[in-house]
Amino acid sequence: MLGILKSGRFGAIAAATALAVTAGGLVSLGTVQEARAIAFATEFAQADTTGEPVEIESARTPTDTVYANPSGTLTREIAVSPVRVRQDGGWTPVDLTLESVDGVIRPKASPFPVELSGGGDDALSRISLSGVTTTMSWVEDLPEPRLDGATATYSDVFDDVDLRMSVTDGGIRQVLVVHNEEAAQNPALDRLQLPTVVEKGSMQSSAKGLSVLDESGREVGGAAAPTMWDSSGDAGAETQQPARSTSPEAIDERTEGPLDGDTVSPVQLEVGDRHVALTPEEDALSGSEVTYPVYVDPSVSPSAYSWAMAFQQHPNSSFYKWTKSNGEGVGYQNYNGVSRKRLFFRFNTEAIRGTQIIGATLRARMTFSSSCAMHATRVYKVGPFSSSLTWNNQPAWRQHLASASQVAFSGCNANGADVSWNVKSGVQETANDRNQSIALGIRQASETNPQAWRRYKHTFRLSIEYNRTPWVPVGTTINNMPCTLTTNPRLGRMTQPPQMRARASDRDSEDTVRSRIGNNGNGEDVSPYGAQPRWVVRNFPVSKAPTDPVPSGEYRFRYRTQDNHGATSNYAEKCKFFVDADLAAVPSLEGEFPDSWSPGQTQQVTVGPGDGNDTVGYAWRVNDDSRPPAKTVNAGSGGQATFTLPQLPAGRHTLRVWAYDAANNPSDAPVERSFEVIDESSIWEFDFDEEQGPSSAADGTQFPVGTAERALRMSFIDTDPSNPTIDRMLALTPQTQTLPALQEQLLDLDASFTVAAYLDPAGTSEDSMTAVSLGEQGTDAVTIEAVSTSEGFEYVFRLRGADGVAREVRADGDDGAPGTMLVLASYNAVFERMELVVANDVQAITSAVLTDAPFVAPALSAPTWTLGAASDGSDRWTGAVDHLSIAQFPVNEMHVNHLIDRGRFADECVQTGAC
Fold this sequence. Notes:
The protein is mainly β. Strands 1, 2, 3, 23, 24, 25, 26, 27, 28, 29, 30, 31, 32 and 33 form a 14-stranded antiparallel sheet that branches.
């Protein structure tokens, strides 16, 4: 017995653990695959086409068979013990038939790896469980076994004592068969000590009987306390075919476990470092009360699969993983001794955790009933149990789930009957609690009526139709901004409700889905069903008038997904966002900002938050009043920011800067500042040299610097060709037939400019004369005039814009005596200012300024510069004109000095005759 227990039990424990680990691993893998949204689309599509369930082979485990249903649900058939095994890269049905391969006995397809001795000094059993290898040996050499199905019989291991090793779907059963009193007296049976070696693990006694542990202390195998029984019961009472207790049929039946009426006794188990020892009760082995053969069973089983029996007449004995071919009893019977029994089963429900249960049915095969009378068998949900389960150590009997009545009797249903119970409520509770297993207890409604006695095979199955819960939504956004409890996006002023968005999907490809969106506990917004995966977009519910902005404040919502079967996912992480309906303050320009600079320069600009305290950044544009959609410059300390204006072309420009707050609210208006980029080389100068007569031309300087030289020609008539040395200025009279003219605008009138010339009215009596004009027939945009006064002449600078309004500025001018004066007419487009500068005797300078003179240049189709008259030929100039200068920048000291120097040179050359 000890040798059998040690070898067989450890082997069975190890094998059981290996199975547990392997099975557990496979189940976990299937769960992981499903959790990664392997939607089994092919199988669902086939089921939809055929209208029949289609097995999902990729979801198989040793105990589970999964089907895709046409409705989009799954059905999982869970067997209490393995029905298939991984072998040669595929699944093979369990086949426990033993065969000898190279002298080692192995089952053809076992749920767990196990080897039995082929005889001689080979180890009785060797099993590897999760990396823990357990090897057990017999006390002496073994005979070659006789193989019969799943049982290997080692005859006469002691005189008239056989060792029967059976591989079952629940583990390994080792049974010593002691045939008679004389054999029972053998001292070798007093204490059987079997050598045991555990590699990468250990073994120890436990409440269950024995445990095998890996190096981390985790249990990888176990065995219930061993038992022994005699043959005092009736081996064939239920089949009405009595058999002698010594017959082969009776021995085969009792090898599977004690019969009703047999005397059952415990066997003491001792676990050492390198051995396991069994000590049978002496009174149970021999004596007048013992009926032979006597059986000693130290069975070993894996912890991955569990079923058990509680036997009232043997209240402290464990009947764990029984596998009787004709089933085990439940209820009460008194025709073969007295028996009251209950059955227990545990199913792995890891794969259905958190799912919606559509239906759940427990199925079993009834092999016998004591009569044709209908009596109910009840199913209960019970507490967890292990190999230590006995009548006196039963799990808690919890809620009653279902009852079913069926018979399997020779007079009414001799071939047995299939029985089923609706256990949906218990399975749904298990799924909701996300438990990895469910334990069910079977007992008769009447445990005192022998007519209610039933037998069931241990191969119970749990069939569960379930709908996998949709995925928790992902990608939650508000107005396309990622949103969680920690991101806290801020939204600015808006009149339309913000848009919530999340991605809804389901593990089952055939399902349609919708979103249920909770809003701060104020109920749920429910979207329509649609194909998945899909983005569900909804307006956040806000209460406001249609044109009012969304009120400022904190808002929250969260998405969950519901499929067309009603299953609902958990909520995604809540989205918390804020709305800020207040605009940012108008920013301010900080520090000095120059009015102008050169084209080749960049310019740094510093801005501040103005009256605001929540400015986080700025955006700017040049010559563009369209507001940018968001900040482009981040604010630093004190809310200030500095950015660089790039090189800009010559001309007038306007900088606009908007402020933005954390909610991307812009300021209601930008801060504006106009400025000019001035190319001080942008000067056209025309000297009228009359030595060559009427055909002479004015020569043009380069404008702007670096571009090709342009020949700008003005024709004129010399009024005194007989004295060219003295008369160097262009002399004009009202009778001059052809006035000098140039049909080209030269200037950008929307930017600053200056027009200058040396003028001498020559003492004429005309009331008003035009010296220089830019315009076209009937329209003068720019004129420099002289107006007669009582003291001489007053110079006038006049602009007439697109609005037709004339703006003018006057300065003291000429006293009427001979002599030229430098007259500069300038417009500053940045400050909208007109300025007239007159240099008397090329030394005394006077000026006049007109502020607030906005000027928008008129559209000129044929702009022409004319000397000596308005553009229409009126207001003819009588006097002299020379050194005409046109510049694309406002008057400045350098320009004035330059022109004064030219006049001095002209005066000197006239006086000396050296020019």
